[in-house]
Amino acid sequence: MRIILFGPPGVGKGTQAKLLTQEFGAVHISTGDLLREAVKNETPLGVKAKQYMEGGNLVPDDIMISLIQEMLSSENARKSFILDGFPRTVAQARALDEMFERMGIALDGVISLRVDHDVVISRLSTRRMCRKCGRIYSLSQLENGQITVCTACGGELYQREDDKPETIRHRLDVYLEQTKPLKEFYRQTGRFTQIDGMQEIGYVHKMILDILYKNKSHV
């Protein structure tokens, strides 16, 4: 299984990636995590990336592609992966295709999870996080807001800045603007499928599996 997984904030993309990782033994390649790890470990690519990040600049595409290629050098990752957070532009998608061709990797699909903005805004704006352990709660879990501390560790519960309605709406708008040309690029190559990410978790997982098995049967 080799897929690119698109999904805006709040759609449950992380949950689906986790389920696919468990089912296929796939490697979840989150480019944000990959970048932070490379910087933390001071790898040659991480050192280069850090220079751009500290200057407030975007990390160049060639460095990002090299990081992904480095990750896919392991046999396990090359056999089965979920690419999350990259590409973000058509130029990156083309560079990624060139890298896949050099490495003899064929994608099984590009899957996008669609969301209803109002539902996502409601879902994210009513969640709270523990400052101490990071556990997330919804207000409905907290007995209509009567509980004010984490039931796991007693830490203070707070609302993250990026969980405020106006911030979420902006993040969703930016996501749509960024991914629209990307989706069209992958549609034109016949690799793109969009599914309703607002359905129940198990149902969304089944839809993803159906797409993967259908694509495999056509190979």
Structural overview:
52% of the residues lie in helices and 15% in strands. It is of the alpha/beta class. It has a five-stranded parallel beta sheet with strand order 2-3-1-4-8, with helices on both faces. The protein has a three-stranded antiparallel beta sheet with strand order 6-5-7. A hairpin with a 5-residue loop joins β5 (127-130) and β6 (136-138). The radius of gyration is 19 Å and the shape is globular. It starts with a strand and ends with a helix.
> What is the CATH first-level class name?
Alpha Beta
Question: How many domains in all?
Answer: 1
* Average pLDDT score: 88
Order of helices and strands: EHEHHHHEHEHEEEHEH
Name given to the CATH architecture: 3-Layer(aba) Sandwich
Beta percentage is 15-25%
Low confidence ranges: none
CATH topology: Rossmann fold
Helical amount among residues, as a percent range?
A: 40-55%
**Name of the CATH superfamily:** P-loop containing nucleotide triphosphate hydrolases
Strands ordered across the widest β-sheet: 2-3-1-4-8
Span between termini: 13 Å
List the total number of helices: 9
User: What is the makeup of the main sheet?
Assistant: 5 strands, parallel
Number of strands: 8
Net shape: globular
Which radius of gyration do the C-alpha atoms yield? Answer: 19 Å
Label the structural class.
alpha/beta
